[in-house]
Amino acid sequence: MISSLRGQVQHVGLDHAVVEVGGVGFAVQMTPTTLATLRRGEEASLATTLIVREDSLTLFGFADAEARELFSLLQTVSGIGPRIALATLAVLEPDKLRHALAEGNITVLTQVPGIGKKGAERLIIELRDKVGALPTPSTPAHSQTRDHVVEALLGLGFPAKAAETTVDNVLGENPDQSTSAVLRRALATLGRK
């Protein structure tokens, strides 16, 4: 996967830019807000994600890793593909999107082209609890430890609910533990079930 690009901007279009890296020009799809920060001939640094389809490889670029994570998270919802996920981030800034999902604000979510009332309800149901789990620049170390351990447990095949509950219980006993200590305790607890 191509997770970031740094290079000279060769072209800025309405929905994409071409960034040259090592003599290769990468066409990168972006929101208008991100495109507005780019200037032809200047260097750009982007967080990216590559979407592979049968008939295409499409690179999407973001101003920061938080927007990239939200883009990926949006696509976990049935009926939301990369185009609608990008449109969502074009209409709603990451913080506004998080708040709309957390508060269940259907009106804000339906401002996005391609998302109707049912789609907004599905987004809220499926992502309400997950948007709080994404790290933000102001997230305390305790929350980042929780996020890292839960992610590791999910990677090992444990169910999301069991992983989150177990990590919360372990951190509830002692919130100042290191990530590795929390992971060991969580694995020991889950291994007994």
From TrEMBL:
Keywords: ATP-binding, Cytoplasm, DNA damage, DNA recombination, DNA repair, DNA-binding, Helicase, Hydrolase, Nucleotide-binding
Claim: Zinc-finger is one of the keywords in the record: no
Segments for region (Domain III): 141-193
Signal peptide stretch: none
Cellular component GO terms, alphabetical: cytoplasm; Holliday junction helicase complex; Holliday junction resolvase complex
BP term (GO), one: DNA repair
Gene3D superfamilies: 5' to 3' exonuclease, C-terminal subdomain, DNA helicase RuvA subunit, C-terminal domain, Nucleic acid-binding proteins
CDD domains: UBA_RuvA_C
Cellular localisation: Cytoplasm
All residue ranges annotated as the Helix-hairpin-helix DNA-binding motif class domain in the record: 72-91, 107-126
UniProt entry tagged with the keyword Cell membrane: no
Gene Ontology MF, one: four-way junction helicase activity
Function: The RuvA-RuvB-RuvC complex processes Holliday junction (HJ) DNA during genetic recombination and DNA repair, while the RuvA-RuvB complex plays an important role in the rescue of blocked DNA replication forks via replication fork reversal (RFR). RuvA specifically binds to HJ cruciform DNA, conferring on it an open structure. The RuvB hexamer acts as an ATP-dependent pump, pulling dsDNA into and through the RuvAB complex. HJ branch migration allows RuvC to scan DNA until it finds its consensus sequence, where it cleaves and resolves the cruciform DNA.
Domain notes per entry: Has three domains with a flexible linker between the domains II and III and assumes an 'L' shape. Domain III is highly mobile and contacts RuvB.
NCBIfam families: ruvA
Recorded family membership: Belongs to the RuvA family.
Assembly mode: Homotetramer. Forms an RuvA(8)-RuvB(12)-Holliday junction (HJ) complex. HJ DNA is sandwiched between 2 RuvA tetramers; dsDNA enters through RuvA and exits via RuvB. An RuvB hexamer assembles on each DNA strand where it exits the tetramer. Each RuvB hexamer is contacted by two RuvA subunits (via domain III) on 2 adjacent RuvB subunits; this complex drives branch migration. In the full resolvosome a probable DNA-RuvA(4)-RuvB(12)-RuvC(2) complex forms which resolves the HJ.
UniProt protein name: Holliday junction branch migration complex subunit RuvA
Organism of this sequence: Lentzea aerocolonigenes (Lechevalieria aerocolonigenes)
Lineage: Bacteria, Bacillati, Actinomycetota, Actinomycetes, Pseudonocardiales
